[in-house]
Structures are given as structure tokens and as C-alpha cells.
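no rush on this but wanted to send it before i forget. theres a chain ive been looking at and ive put its sequence and its fold in C-alpha cell form underneath. i want to understand how the C-alpha cells follow from the sequence so walk me through it. thanks a lot i owe you, the record is right below:
>
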Amino acid sequence: GLVLGGGIGFDMRKHGLTCDHLVETTMVTGSGEILTLNDTENKELFWACRGGGGGNFGINTSFTFEPYSVGNVVAFNVSWEEKVEDVLAVLLPALEKAPDEFGAKLSVIPARPGTSDRIRINILGQHMGTEAEFRDLLATVYAVAAPSSEKVSYLPYWPAQADLTELGPPEYYHERSRFVDRSLSPAALDLIWAQIRKWPGTSEGASFKMFQSGGAVNRIAPNATSFVHRSSLYVMSVAVLWSEHDSTDLLRQNLNWQDEFYDALLPHASPGAYQNFIDPSLEDWQQAYYGANLPRLIAAKRQADPDNVFHFAQSIPG
């Protein structure tokens, strides 16, 4: 689940990942033993549970977290349909200059072929400051083009989270991720636009996304928890959604488009992929998810689950 594989969100640049706030968890092992995991009891397994991913070691039945105080935030959901290439070119540097109090997910959403839809850029997130600060941070973007839609609200923390929550029923969905540890070059931006315009379309949608990272996430050593990805600017992904009404041939076209898009981005990304976005297409998934922490995770797996009771296609090998 969220915490066991890291846990990204709009707070992470200021406060770190969800797993960084875990102080204790209870686990039932494959043999039926009930273990308490924290910094003093079962320390190695506790380390493994902070980034190793769910379903690998046992069944976690409780979590205890260290809280942090929250106040009012600026919740925002802003989209552009005019001058989208120019908007993206100035939006990314603006995000990279933003303080840790600012957290956003940037999406580039292709136009559905054969419709009047237009390519759209969206940013969804929050700023732990004032609306004036928010608008100042994005002043260069607003100077390029006025948004096609905008909702910016100064709210107490929890009502803001309700505004930002993306609810919906279960979906047919495939997402492929990579971490990005440097600014995207003009060549990378050209590639993104070329691929966005090649989308074959489904009845549901697709997107290229970049989740802001950095800040507090990167101030923790890669081996302090089992979450190894501690040098990124973004978590990048290419996502496809479809429905039962889409043909097998159209789905194949979309998955091929996704793979082509993803492969083209690899030279512009780091080797890591986000373990909570499980990707059956990854051939190098062990290194992509866990990097240098993999041998230690394998040792923790062998100790906690020697009979490999908890296993799935991309579970940590025992």
C-alpha cells in the first residue's frame, strides 16, 4: 500500500514521504507470528517496510506515525489549453524554483482523436502559504497564457485535501514510471509533444505526468530507509486508461504508444521506477524499484518469509 512503497503526495517536499513518518508497525508473518517493528524491535524488517513495497514480508495490521502540524493551504487546480508548448516551457522552471512548501502534479493530457478536444496542461496541488505567493510563483506562466480553467482556494488543510482528492470507481489503467533527477532539456520537451500528438485514443484517456519531488524527500540518505530514490526532481509517468468498449486492437495500439513514449523518455530520466506504480512491463524491475538496497531487502525477505509465502510476479525474491 501507500506507506510500504514510499508514499508520495503534495506534502512530501516539505515533510517527506509517508514511510518517513512511520515509527512502528505490527506484522503477521507467514508462520503466524505477530511481530512489532520499530527502531529497536525487528529493526531490519522495519527498515524494509519503509519502501520495500506491500505484499513482500507479511501482513501489516497496524501503522503508527509521527504527525506534523498543519494549517491553511492554497489548494489549486489550474488548466491551460492555449499556447501549451510555451506554457510547459516556463511552467517546469517555475516548479523547480518553488519552495518546499509548494507541491504539485503536472499533467499533459492529449486530445482524443476525432473530437473537438484540445491538448491540456493541468497542475493540481497545494502551497503552504498565501494565494499571493502562489500567484507570484506562477507569474511567468500566467504571463504566457490565461488558464482555460482555474480553481484556487485558501482553505484549512483537511478541506483542501478533500478538494484535491481524485475519487472514482475502479478503472482499466496502466501506468509506467521513472524518476527524473534533472531538468528536462528542450529535446525532451520536443519528444513529449511529439508523443502526445501521436496518441491513438481510447474512450477514457491518457496522460503524461510529473509529480514534484525533492526537498525533504532528498534530505534522507538512500539507505536510511529501503526507499532508495532520494535524488529526484520528479516522479514521471505515462498512463493509459481504457474501458470494455475499446477494442483489443485499439488497446494494443495504446500500449504500444505508451511503450514507445516511455522508451523515448529513458535517456532523459534516472534508472529508478516508483515501486508503488507496479509496472508488469519492466524488465529491470528489481533494480528500478530498489537499486542498491535490493541485496539488503532480499536478506530481510529471507529472514521474515523463508518459505516465500508472500509472493507475486514482482515480489522481492527470497
